[in-house]
Amino acid sequence: MTIPIPAEDPRHVPNRAVIDPSAITQNTRALGTLLEEQTALMAVVKADGYGHGMLTAARAAIEGGATWLGVAHPASALALARADLDAQILTWLYEPHTAQIVLPEVLRSGVDVAVGSPEMLQLVAAAAREADRRARVHLKIDTGMGRNGVLPWQVREMGAAIRDDDFLQLTAAWTHLTSAEDPEGPATDQQAELFDSACEALEDEVGPIPLQHIANSAATLTRPDLHRDIVRPGIALYGYPPVPADVPLRPAMTLSSRLALVKEVPEGHSVGYGRIHRTSRATTLGLVPIGYADGLHRTASDSIDVLVRTQSGDRRVPQVGRISMDQIVVDLGPETAARAGDEVVLFGDAGGEPDAPSAPTADHWARAAETIPYEVLTSVSGRVTREVRA
Fold first, then answer.
1. 263 is catalytic
2. 14 exposed, middle or buried (CB, 10 Å; 0-12, 13-18, 19+)?
3. 147 labelled as ligand-binding?
């Protein structure tokens, strides 16, 4: 007999990821100012909207002008379709078992499906027949990523197979850039050239391609020549440009907790597993009930600041010692007004006074953990309550 274990009541847990949909809306609008009128914006809301909530992110992006939504998995696409949103949806990642189960319903819902191999094309064709609906196919071309996608010399064969099947319709050709975050490098130009030559071969086989899309967040910001018919920004929608940009973008997630304990310790006191930190003077430590099980990166241990909000004002203080599963320690300093119950902002928009210290960002955490803000945002675990700001 299986006995269900009740989930933690979010009212009893101090950790919060506050999502600001208006930031996603504003970021979408800002990116839209870079586009020509004929170029559509596909908001990439995969990975549960990069941890922000897929439906929350989708609705906010549509309000900001997105007319397409992109998700990796067909089940996510189906959830978006059932939400009756005013946008066309694309999904691109599936394997045979789940494809047989979910693709027919996905196609009945009017979702576009990407195809990156002859086998995937067969799965989509079979699903289209079962659904009794013509599938709108985006042919993925591998121009150097080495993941999903047909190689350029396969496009004629794939195009002919789509053309000759009454249940398939070629809607788009697309590719994925490997190094758009390096605008000076040659890889993006090389990929674009491969993509264009592959599209020429595809057009020789099937005629004009209705849509082409290449640009991710970085290329949307830096390569207007690659905007084509659709751009596919992801991380930039959530406030983190992967390249330096003049476009104003605002973080949409703020991760916070509260001090559980405050105590004075002497000089030389060790902190955390492995004793990687010892206090350099007598000081006051604060215990925060959030850790790597909540999504904090252990590799950022002893290398990041947080913002503590006290009655006497906000202050950036260092996290010290090893980040644990459920808790971290911060050095509040020898003279502090901090008390148990005070708010701690791990990253995001603290919304303080203009001259007050700002909170760290996901970029700060990424640098401390030697990773990228994408991973910081999507690592915030399901046991952290999401609150959507009105």
1. no
2. middle
3. yes
